[in-house]
Every structure is written in C-alpha cells, then in structure tokens.
Amino acid sequence: RMVKRYMACRNDIHRHDAPFIAVFKSLIPAEEELEKQKQLMAKLDNLVAKEWPNAKLYLYGSCANSFGFPKSDIDVCLAIDDDDVNKSEILLKLADSLESDNFQNVQALTRARVPIVKLMDPVTGISCDICINNVLAVVNTKLLRDYSMIDGRLRQLAFIVKHWAKSRKVNETYQGTLSSYAYVLMCIHYLQQRSPPILPCLQEMEPTYSVGVDNIQCAYFDNVGRLSTFGSGNRETIAELVWGFFNYWAYGHDYANTVVSVRTGSILGKREKDWTRRVGNDRHLICIEDPFETSHDLGRVVDKFSIRVLREEFERAAKIMHQDPNPCAKLFEPY
Ligand code: ATP
Ligand code: MG
C-alpha cells in the first residue's frame, strides 16, 4: 500500500508542472535587458581598448551563465596579460576613465577581498562591478552556461531553487548560507545523479576546451550542441525534479560524510578530500566541491547556526512538495 501511495503521489505531482513553468517563465529576463547589457559591454570594451589595447573584458556570473534574474547587476572581469599587474593602479586608472566618460557612482574599492570598480551607466541604468584577472570565474561561468544548454530542465530547476533561496533568505553568504553559484552546482549535480541521467559529466569526457588558469588546468567537453538529446531517456518533469531536489537535501544527503562533486559527476567521501575537520574557518558542514578549484568547498561559509537554518528550509520545502495542495505558492512565501 505504501508503494501505491508513493506512486500516486509521484504521479499526482505532474499537475504542478504548469504552475512551476509559469514561475520559471516569469523569472527569465526580457530580451531587451540582454540588449542593454550588450550595449553597456560595447561601451566598456571601447573605453578599455583605448587604455589597454591588449586587455579583454569578459562578462561572468549570473549575467552570463544563463541563470540570471531580471534587473541584476552585471559582473565584468578585465583580463590583463601582464607579468606585474598592480591591480590597485589599474582600478584607479579605470575609475578615472570611467568618470571622464560620464559613468556615474564610480568607486574604486582597492582594499576589498576582491578589488573592484563599481559604476552605474546612466544610459541603460545598469550597475556593474569590474574586477581584474578573475579568470576562474569566467571559466566556471562558461561551464554553467554549457551545462544549461544540454537540457532545459536545468535552467527551470535552477531558477526555481534560486527563487526559493532568495525568498527564504538562504542565499546570503555573509550570513552563512549559500551563494547562487553553489545552488546551481547543486542542481547540476542532482541532474547528473538521476537515473537515467539528465546531465552528463562534462569534465569526465574527452576535453574539447582547455585553459590553464593560475596553476589549474580547466578542461572539459564543451561541444554541447552534440549533447542536445542526452537527457531524453529521462522523462521526469520540473515538479518531480523540484520535489526530488528538496527531498534529497532534506532527507537523502549524508551531511556527515559526503561531498557533492560536479567535476566527477558523483558523490565523494569527505575523507578522500580531507574535509573531515574544521580548518581555520572552513567547517565543511555541507560540502560542495568547486569544479575547478577542487580544494575549495563552496559550503565553507556555512557555520553551526546557518547549517540548521539551511536544513530546516530544505525540510520545509520538501514537506510542502509532499503535502501542500498548492506548493508553488507556499514554497516561495517570503521569510
Ligand atoms: P545572483 O543572481 O544571485 O547574482 P550569480 O550567478 O551572480 O547570482 P554569485 O554567487 O553572485 O552568483 O557569483 C557570481 C560568479 O562569481 C559565479 O558565477 C561564479 O563564476 C563566481 N563565484 C561566486 N562565488 C564563487 C566561489 N565561492 N568560488 C568561485 N567562484 C565563485
Ligand atoms: Mg551576482
């Protein structure tokens, strides 16, 4: 009888597909917003080309990884191939040129953990942060975007999870909860683990793209046009995946012993990563391996208080998906 009830519940879940798709559609930025971003990038490209002819600007983060919400600020990286770059000097010079070019609210934050210049473009109304030589972020942005092109269900799931995390205030790294980047990796990992899988593990395939960044070789199969039918053997729908995702993080994940890894498309042991004890501020209470900086745990911001908050929110979401007649409304209720 239990199995029957479970199956009934799983089958019934499909009636929530339409509302979830509607939420997803309401979160996608409009085409004209992307046009404005391009317009701003072209202007910045021009300015940079005058000062540093050999430098190049890259978009990274949610404005370029296909998981961006409307009205987000854009993140830009200035890549300068120079042996002795003085970041502060460059940022100050950049701030100067931006001001003379009539950009507004220009501010060089040279002492920040990640030094940046902030600016607002009065023409498009877009705010922007420019950092220097943060090439790994550009590469991991491309990895996320490449995954999103394989199966449309990733974008649906990730938008819904991000929307949930923002509504429930568990997308605040300075308060010990997870970054959007971490949530998208959790979604990719979840879809890699489905059976049959919805996403492949691009880093385990024959590389078609490879760049060295600092001391890290970033290589993976990026010819994703070839993989557009990869997930078609799996017929799970968005409501089912949202249900399964929260169920996994509420009741299925072994927080004490395991690490989720998009790089290997599998679950690793904390032991093999030597993430079993606290080192400095890294407590490893929820472990999400960065796909390229493999010593980097994206869960390292989580502390003994915020882990409880997170797990309670996962459980709340799972319960809503199990029981609530209208999960779509309840899930995103503001905290
Ligand atoms: P949001 O819509 O919330 O602004 P976002 O995609 O911009 O989402 P962030 O978490 O702000 O996500 O991260 C921006 C980018 O910075 C990511 O896409 C990623 O490339 C990089 N990044 C963020 N956090 C890390 C991290 N801990 N380690 C490595 N790269 C990171
Ligand atoms: Mg961002």
Distance between the termini: 36 Å
Proportion in helices? 40-55%
Topology order in helix (H) and strand (E) letters: HHHEEHEEEHHHEEHEEHEHH
Radius of gyration from CA coordinates: 21 Å
How do the strands line up in the largest sheet? Answer: 1-2-5-4-3
Largest sheet: 5 strands, mixed
Ranges with pLDDT <50 over ≥5 residues? none
Mean pLDDT metric: 95
Overall geometry comes to: globular
Bound molecules: adenosine-5'-triphosphate, magnesium ion
Task: Give the strand tally.
Answer: 10
Count, helices: 11
What amount of the residues lies in strands? 5-15%
- What structural class do you assign from the helix and strand content? alpha+beta
Topology:
Layout: H1 2-12, H2 17-27, H3 31-51, E1 56-60, E2 74-79, H4 87-100, E3 104-109, E4 116-120, E5 127-132, H5 135-148, H6 152-167, H7 180-193, E6 209-213, E7 216-220, H8 238-252, E8 258-261, E9 266-269, H9 270-273, E10 287-289, H10 306-323, H11 327-331
Parallel strand pairs: 2-5, 8-10
Antiparallel strand pairs: 1-2, 3-4, 4-5, 6-7, 8-9
Helix pairs in contact: 2-6, 6-7, 8-10
Residues 61-62, 75 line the site of magnesium ion.
Task: Report on the architecture of this protein.
With 335 residues, the chain is α+β, with helices and mostly antiparallel strands. Helix content is 43%, strand content 15%. The strands form 3 sheets. Strands 1-2-5-4-3 form a 5-stranded mixed beta sheet, sandwiched between helices. Helix 6 crosses helix 7 (180-193). The longest helix is centred in the first third of the chain and has 21 residues, at 31-51. The chain is globular, with a radius of gyration of 21 Å. Bound molecules: adenosine-5'-triphosphate and magnesium ion. Magnesium ion is lined by residues 61-62, 75. Magnesium ion (MG) binds next to loops.
